[in-house]
Amino acid sequence: MADNEKKDKEAQEAIQEEMAHAARGKSRWEDLWKKEDWWANWLGGLLLLFGLIVFWAALPAEAPQDLEEYEAVIEREEARAPFATIEQIRAQDAMDAIRARDHGLGPLLGDLIRRPRGWDDNPVDAFYLSEARAAEMREQARPRYEEAQQETQEALAVAEEAQAAAEEAGFVDENLNQEAVQAIDAWLDARAAEASARRAATVSSFNLVPSLILLMVGLGLFFSIGIYFMGGNVGKFLVGFPIVFIISIIGFFIGNHAIASEYGLSYVLWCIIIGLLISNTISTPGFVKPSVQTEYYIKTGLVLLGGSILFGLILMIGAPGIVVAWGVTPTVLIIGYWVGNKYIKLPSKPLNVCVAAAASVCGVSAAIAAAAASKAKGEELTIAVGLSLVFTALFMFLIPAFVVAVGMNPILGGAWIGGTVDSTGAVVAAGELLGPGAMYTAATLKMIQNVMIGILAFAIAAYWAIKVEREAAPDIELTVGAALKEIWTRFPKFVIGFIVASVVFTIIYEVMGRDIGDTIISDGVLGGWANPLRAWFFAMAFTSIGLATNFRELAKYFAGGKILYHYVFTQGFNLILTLVLAWLMFMVVFPGITEHLMEIR
Fold it and tell me: For residue 42, how many other CB atoms are within 10 A of its CB?
């Protein structure tokens, strides 16, 4: 109990300091090196810059000419036939095989950031495979590989014959064209089966333990840079970091089991579950807590995600996303606040707006912004944050489960998650459970929604100055300057890194052209560096979510029925309105956007 009181007191003091800073309206340049949002930008940007330099240098000298030749074949075949011909598919395969991550330092970096491998009956196979065991596996897989090779050759012969018949008819006979398409599809299926058999028949020995140790040490030191400048204890952070990292490894390990992979039970779920089991049974050890840095890890990962989401995709999601995020958010906040005052009759208007903001925007960040703007008491903010954490923990599992159970389009499900689940980390976790396209949609829509934090902080501050505080005490006044400073103070700065990374990589991609851009950016910086690192950062963030969530401590926030009723009503209204508007935007008005997002892998 004493520990909880101490934590509440420290939280209240921190909140009061933030609100005092906002009221003073003073700018603090030291935020650039003392706040985790900015360190997420610096660290994420540094990783992207490093990757860009490494993989640009790794581009093979002959690659531009080869890519140009393959592109010419593709253009010729597209003009010649109304369907993807065998020659076109082979040329595209050759283009896809030219990847910057396969050259220069790419393979070394790939080995360093590798995650535990897939496994079935032998858990050791996820981390270590001896040469004797690899030889045994190759021998076992060889008959199937040879059989698959024969099936591919037979399917190719049928496809070539069907394509030749369609070509002889000038590609104008729809029946012959359709027969050719079906035969080529059958060849592609056989070829995919052959590729799977080839991987099993050519497996090599490996030992991931040394690389995992090096990665653990490297990431610990990497993140400790920000910890040092933010005033944290680097020694304590490094002592607890191995536990967070090892739990992340276990999450990947379980998620890569054959059964877990088959049912989509990814590392996201297991990292959170393991963390929850620890925090709600033996409790998170004190020496680990300095390394439980959920927002620090997730924000750095989201800056890397910005590089992956080329700005064209943001703009594409932006049309329906802006309508959903910016249409629902202020509506839910206003209605929630009005109902809390008029019908639920909460005794405190600052508490009312904190709960409404937490439910309508993005949980903790929005609640803090609302608390600063309305001058809420520390305990009022604590209640709003506590409720947000409880429902976030529930929604990150329940909404994806509901989406799957009813057969909802995953992109629609991702948009629903992005507009309703409070924490950015939980949004990414929940979206990941539905697939890459859903995760991209959820994260991007949440970014669009996060922009509302500053706007709503300004609106709440102005409302309090003009109406609420003038009614209670006419001599209290919030200046325009302080209100304007509030926008910048509360704006989530990591969103800047996300957008800048997206814009910069989009420009680089467009300047390089699609072919070179795919080779260096998509198949180099992102595929061989940023995306695997992002998965590690997300795993550590999901682990931290579990380790930081203790249901016994949060149970007290369910006390006081009015507050709970208020949050349930506001969040319920948010769920319904967001789903309706997301369905209208993504399924009715912009179905083409949804179809494109479904293709993201």
Answer: 17
Considering the domain boundaries, does residue 2 fall inside one? no
Place of tokens 């990431």: 219
Strand partners, 119: 257
Domain count, the chain: 1
The answer to whether the beta carbons of residues 532 and 295 sit under 8 Å apart is no
Asked whether the beta carbons of 266 and 276 are under 8 A apart, the reply is no
Average pLDDT over residues 281-300: 91
pLDDT of 482: 60
CA gap 16, 13 in Å, rounded: 5
> What is the domain extent for residue 141?
131-204
* pLDDT tens readout for residues 529-560: 999 999 999 899 889 888 987 777 656 555 55
Give domain status of residue 517, yes or no. Answer: no
As given in the structure block, the two tokens for residue 16 are 């009061």
pLDDT in tens, 427-455: 877 888 888 788 888 888 887 777 677 67
Q: Cβ distance 269 to 433 under 8 Å?
A: yes
Cα distances (angstroms) measured from residue 95 to each of 69, 121, 501, 516:
9, 37, 26, 10
Helix, strand, coil fractions of the chain, as percent rounded to 5: 80, 0, 20
pTM for the full predicted model? 0.76
Give the position of tokens 């002889």.
Answer: 168
Mean pLDDT of 243-261: 93
As a whole number of angstroms, the distance between CA 15 and CA 9 comes to 10
Question: Per-residue pLDDT averaged across 117-136, rounded?
Answer: 91
Q: Which of 219, 152, 162, 222 is nearest to 187 (CA)?
A: 152
Chain CA centroid to CA 239, Å: 27
Residue 22 inside a domain? The answer is: no
Residue 185 placed within a domain? yes
DSSP SS3 for 492: coil
Q: What is the pLDDT of residue 73?
A: 93
Q: Quick check: 391 and 417 in contact, CB under 8 A?
A: no
Buried b (16+ CB within 10 A) or exposed e, 437-451: bbbbbbbbbbbbbbb
